[in-house]
Amino acid sequence: MPNGPAWSQKLRAEIAKAVIGQDTIVERLLVALLANGHVLLEGMPGLAKTLLVKSLGQALGVRFERIQFTPDLLPSDVVGTMVFQPKEGTFAPHLGPVFANLLLADEINRAPAKVQSALLEAMQERQVTIGGQSHPLPSPFFVMATQNPIEQEGTYPLPEAQTDRFLFKLILDYPSAEEELTVVQRWGLVTKQPSVAAVSSGEELLALRHEVDRVHMAPEVHRYILSMVRATRMLAERNGDPGGKRQLNFGASPRASLALFQTGRALAWLRGQDYVAPALLQELAPDILRHRLGLTYEAEAEELTTDTIIGQVVERTPVPAVARS
């Protein structure tokens, strides 16, 4: 069984055949796989969000399905429906594309709420109900959804109840000049495109999660996680300073505490560490908290962002001195 750095390297090297750069994003996706969590990817069009998720599925060697979310999409297009069988004279379930190991919900905010909610049971319970009967989803199962921050006319913003179910919200940025040159050179041919081979498997991933659970986390780090998360809730009551303005309408939920706990161990294991240091949690905090905070109108008027507020929370939260023991 490979160790964390070896497993990470073989997957990242294979994905890099198709996706240039985005090293931090790829590492976060591997963390999400190990932590059994879903991911929301946001970025401008053309930044290879779809290609990244597809390449991840190919490198992992699992069943991959893609759903293009559109305003006319129906819940049955996602989870499936009951189909009449003329020979038997009965209805039988026809399972939808959600029955995959890795599901890409492309431009998830372009479908109405009833379609978005069709994913809720799948994401949280890892099962769907068709014709009054529950059908378990395959294991492992992940939803990776994309959305872009422009062209918001005619879209349906995800409600907080659904965004909270995503482990990470990752922001993709433009590649550097050198990376974009490599993209042009590698993808410039019309008759030949890069291909990604399977270097792992769903079974290997499930086994590696047991190794992640063995990573040590000191009690002081448990309390450090709670201090950061609870500090965001205090900002929904006041600014942290007497007489200050409220910056948040609501703070992070307990899912944020659980996410920091799980991803801290996963990231430590990926980097070959046998314990969780506070620095890892500080690194993960923006990706875990940015979609779990609600800015007030006053904060938006001052052009504050959730990332700015998270940075302030991280800076103000006392860091424990943690050893391996």
Walk me through the structure.
The protein is α/β, with parallel strands linked by helices and 325 residues long. The chain is built from 13 helices and eleven strands. The protein has helices spanning 4-15, 23-35, 49-60, 75-79, 113-125, 160-163, 177-187, 202-213, 219-235, 254-270, 278-289, 297-301, 306-316, and strands at 38-42, 64-68, 80-85, 90-95, 102-106, 127-130, 133-136, 142-147, 166-171, 248-250, 294-295. It has a five-stranded parallel β-sheet. The protein has a two-stranded antiparallel sheet with strand order 3-4. A two-stranded antiparallel sheet has the order 6-7. The longest helix has 17 residues, at 219-235. The chain is globular, with a radius of gyration of 21 Å. The chain starts with a helix and ends in a 9-residue tail after the last helix. The model has no long low-confidence stretch (mean pLDDT 89).
Distance between the termini: 26 Å
For the biggest β-sheet, the strand order reads: 2-5-8-1-9
**Cα shape:** globular
> What string, H for helix and E for strand, traces the elements in order?
HHEHEHEEEHEEEHEHHHEHHEHH
What profile does the largest beta sheet have?
A: 5 strands, parallel
How many beta-strand elements?
Answer: 11
Provide the gyration radius in Å. 21 Å
**Share of helix, binned:** 40-55%
Residue-averaged pLDDT = 89
